[in-house]
Design a protein that fits this description.
Strand order of the largest sheet of chain B: 3-4-6
Radius of gyration of chain B: 27 Å
Order of helices and strands of chain B: HEEHEEHEEE
Number of domains of chain B: 2
Order of helices and strands of chain A: HHHEEHHHHHHHHHHH
Structural class of chain B: alpha+beta
CATH architecture of the largest domain in chain B: 2-Layer Sandwich
Shape of chain B: elongated
Shape of chain A: globular
CATH topology of the largest domain in chain B: Alpha-Beta Plaits
Structural class of chain A: mainly alpha
Strand content of chain A: under 5%
Distance between the termini of chain A: 40 Å
Strand content of chain B: 15-25%
Largest sheet of chain B: 3 strands, antiparallel
Distance between the termini of chain B: 82 Å
Largest sheet of chain A: 2 strands, antiparallel
Helix content of chain B: 10-25%
Oligomer: heterodimer
CATH class of the largest domain in chain B: Alpha Beta
Radius of gyration of chain A: 20 Å
Chain lengths: 330, 161
């Protein structure tokens, strides 16, 4: 148990460092820049230097803040992202806890993180924080729906909520290929709603710098800020890992019909490489969104959810049910 | 029915326009040759600057140590923040024994210059131009006050005609 916990913490730190570096490099290349290239060869130690800087920063608390809630909020956020990691199958036989309601568990747990954000917004006694937190609340509550409904499509196709079983059901092919058009629609909706739930651009009004200075973490400094930052990146990893598991076959290698030799070669690549490869591909896609699209207004955001994503995903669910009943999927 | 068609076509139009943007950034991501940033201190020896780059004001001299400045002080008037100061003197022409106005020193306060290019535009004889030298940092403010005409230089023949 302790060893597993230590491994998770190590994974946390490692992922945080990798994502910070990756984000900055991807952003730089997409904006025709070079990105960090001074600390270490090709700038790979930049994330470490950033962490060190945050460690040395003063932990400031506003005078009028609700002290207890202010101190407890970063822990809530980081514990939530740690909990959501539990049922994810990282590789063949490498899964911390195979819940029979794994998908449901992840979507339930990950929506707790909004409480941490709301607590920060409330307790730091700052109008920007409060506004940011309220926006974030409205956003996560509404996008939770279409994210959940797009996941339901895959649950219906595979007939199980356990993430282990879902991966197993993709032995003959990934759901995005097997599930026809509904799976593709569900995948697109999942990625959009996932990006919105992560509070990342183009849905980052919760911390819209231009209008809210820092959004909900305006008053958060030093290591507490680092915890928020880390939990945001871990949430990104969780969303992408779930996306990879549900739609892209988790740790299952890529197989093409009856090309036996090709399938054999694909089997030689270890399953953990497949899993992390797919997850990092999705992370890259989400970063691609961030550095391409401008930020949405709050009304545009709610229009997108309630007028487009939500009806489409409901319709998509009916379509999926039809496919499952008629056994049209492979 | 009309509503439904419009609804669906909106979705596809939106996806199309989003894809257009993503195609561009994706293209940039996979083509590092497009990167515009230069690694400055490393490429100092083979630095390529634009033709119109404004480094600092310099006065052009030919090989006989002659410049083209008549001391008309058009640049001094054009300068919005008093960067240029022209101190003139009167030379006596050796042949005609007439007094003739010429510059004693063209004082240029680099520390006050905003590199607006107005002095170069206003110069009627093309005596001054912007150089590509841009490493101006200095520990002594005095070194930023420069005299642009070289010692012993004089006006080029035929500029005033």
């Amino acid at each position: 148990m302790v060893i597993v916990g230590l491994c998770v913490l190590l994974l946390f730190v490692l992922l945080g460092l990798i994502f910070v570096y990756m984000e900055r490099k991807v952003a730089a290349f997409m904006q025709l820049r070079l990105g960090p290239n001074r600390v270490g060869p090709k700038g790979i130690l930049q994330a470490l230097a950033d962490t060190f800087k945050l460690l040395l920063k003063e932990g400031l608390t506003p005078k009028a803040a609700d002290k207890f809630l202010f101190y407890v909020a970063p822990f809530i956020v980081i514990i939530v992202s740690m909990l959501a990691l539990a049922p994810i199958p990282f590789a063949k036989g490498l899964q911390m806890y195979d819940l029979n309601i794994g998908v449901f568990y992840v979507s339930a747990v990950s929506s707790i993180s909004v409480i941490g954000i709301l607590i920060v917004g409330w307790s730091s006694y700052n109008k920007y924080s409060l506004l940011g937190a309220m926006r974030s609340g409205a956003q996560i509550v509404s996008y939770e729906l279409s994210a959940g409904l797009s996941v339901v499509a895959i649950v219906a196709l595979s007939g199980s909520m356990s993430l282990g079983d879902i991966v197993e059901s993709q032995r003959t092919g990934w759901w995005i290929f097997k599930g026809h058009i509904p799976a593709i629609i569900a995948f697109i909706i999942f990625i959009i709603a996932g990006t919105a739930e992560l509070n990342r651009a183009p849905f980052d009004m919760a911390e819209a710098e231009q209008e809210l200075t820092g959004g909900f973490h305006t008053e958060i400094t030093g290591m507490r800020f680092a915890m928020f930052f880390l939990s945001e990146y871990i949430n990104m990893f969780v969303v992408c890992a779930i996306g990879a598991t549900l739609f892209l076959g988790g740790w299952m290698p890529f197989h093409v019909g009856h090309f036996e030799s090709f399938n054999k070669i694909m089997d030689y690549i270890p399953s953990i490489v497949w899993f992390f490869g797919k997850t990092f591909f999705l992370v890259w896609v989400i970063m691609w969104f961030r550095w391409t699209f401008p930020r949405l207004r709050i009304d545009q955001l709610l229009t997108l959810e309630w007028k487009y994503l939500m009806p489409i995903s409901l319709f998509n669910m009916i379509l999926t049910a039809l496919i499952v009943i008629m056994k049209w999927h492979f | 029915m009309k509503f439904l068609i419009e609804y669906i076509s909106t979705i596809f139009r939106t996806l199309g326009s989003l894809w257009k943007g993503m195609k561009l950034t994706g293209y940039y991501f996979f083509h590092p040759k497009e990167i515009l940033t230069q690694e400055y201190p490393e490429n100092r020896s083979k630095l390529v600057l634009g033709e119109r780059f404004r480094g600092e004001v310099t006065m052009t001299h030919n090989e006989n140590n002659e410049h083209r400045c008549t001391g008309c002080s058009a640049c001094e008037i054009a300068c919005p923040n008093g960067t240029i100061r022209i101190i003139s003197k009167f030379d006596i022409d050796p042949e005609t024994k007439k007094k003739k106005k010429a510059i004693d020193s063209f004082v240029y306060h680099l520390g006050m210059c905003t590199f607006c290019n107005l002095c170069i535009v206003s110069c009627p004889t093309d005596a001054i131009k912007m150089s590509h030298e841009f490493e101006h940092s200095s520990r002594d403010r005095k070194s930023l006050t420069k005299i642009l005409n070289k010692p012993g230089s004089k006006l080029m023949q035929g500029v005033e005609e």
